[in-house]
Structure prediction request, 277 residues.
Amino acid sequence: AIRREKAKVHGPRRLAIFNHKGGTGKTTTSVSIAAGLAARGLRVLLVDTDSQGNVGVSLGVKAERTLYHMLVMGLKPSAAAVNVRENLDLVVSNETLAAAELYLAGRQNRDRILRERLTPAEDQYDVVLLDCSPSLSLMNQNALVYADGILVPVACDFLSLVGVRQVIKTVKNVNSLLHHPVQIYGVLPTFYDARARICRDAVDTLKQHFGDKCLLPIRAATRVKEAPAQGKTIFELAPESNASEDYRAVVERLVTGKGAELPADFSPASQPMAANA
Prediction:
């Protein structure tokens, strides 16, 4: 493999999209950020580490070779990955990942196998993104031990706020028990509707707790739910939508370090109404 000059990136080059709680928009966030980075000319590898395999479905891709083949058979990432868009490669998952977890459980250094498999491929990519399942699985331990940053999508509701505490605890455990210094890069409020008081309160709470690690919220939009059914990214289906604009701001922040932090005078109530754009 030819060594290539890496594009400059402000955010983590190994980014896990992670939250224990389901229904927070993890897969949409993973696909949107990966597609957004690729559209800016960065070479991106997106790895689905969830046996439900929603990333492949969302991008309209079926692949013969999966993360199972990479972990268990030692298949190189370059052989397992399929090119799904310009600059964007994907390693898919499916139900065979459960068998891969059993394989990992019996191995020495069982929480570092994914890292061993992915590291050789890094010369080919500017950023590696991992879409994690909503659980505390061994697979997720592997993902967090590989990552150097975590993005936590948080739905704007009370139960999701409670779930964030669990994420913080897990990150501390990865740091202390697994001896890997991974940091929360950002907390991303999702399904935001400025008209709903719970949404405004949720963003306020996250902002108080995480400061400038709390990113601008992703506004709720029906098109976000329609995109996976058509195998399209939000940028392809509804490039002018609020959600597209909001995900572009996250990508801008990852690339340049600017663009998605909440301004000091951010008042959730003063945000534009969330249209069904």
Observations:
- DSSP finds twelve helices and seven strands in the chain.
- The first strand starts at residue 14 and ends at 17.
- The first helix runs from residue 26 to 39.
- Residues 272-277 have pLDDT under 50 and may be disordered.
